[in-house]
Prior knowledge:
CATH architecture: Alpha-Beta Complex
CATH topology: Outer Surface Protein A, domain 3
Distance between the termini: 18 Å
Largest sheet: 3 strands, antiparallel
Structural class: alpha+beta
Radius of gyration: 15 Å
Oligomer: single chain
Order of helices and strands: HEEEEHHHEH
CATH class: Alpha Beta
Strand content: 15-25%
Number of helices: 5
Number of strands: 5
Amino acid sequence: xxxxxxxxxxxxxxxxxxxxxxxxxxxxxxxxxxxxxxxxxxxxxxxxxxxxxxxxxxxxxxxxxxxxxxxxxxxxxxxxxxxxxxxxxxxxxxxxxxxxxxxxxxxxxxxxxxxxxxxxxxxxxxxxxxxxxxxxxxxxxxxxxxx
Length: 147
């Protein structure tokens, strides 16, 4: 693994804090938010059919690109709009995906509280997987080894 050009120690430290928060019994009460710099990139063919969707955080060496299904983007849009508690959106079918998005830093626990309660949109398990593309500086691969 190559060293990134800018320090990522604070982000790695945040990762370990997140792991501790996820282990707490009351973690379901914590509010979710999408990483503020997250971007969604999609490619379409000339007919307008979307054939590739990926998540990224530009200019941040802690993150790589994350190819995913449109269902993940819809889930993230719901979370961005409604800022729910983890317990309000987690289901048996999306629980591992939500934890994975948290470990990758795509989702974060918010310290602010909002009153909105979301309506959870269900998707099939294969729609709810987020791959992690390798780059020359892929520090979030650390999550794969530590999880």
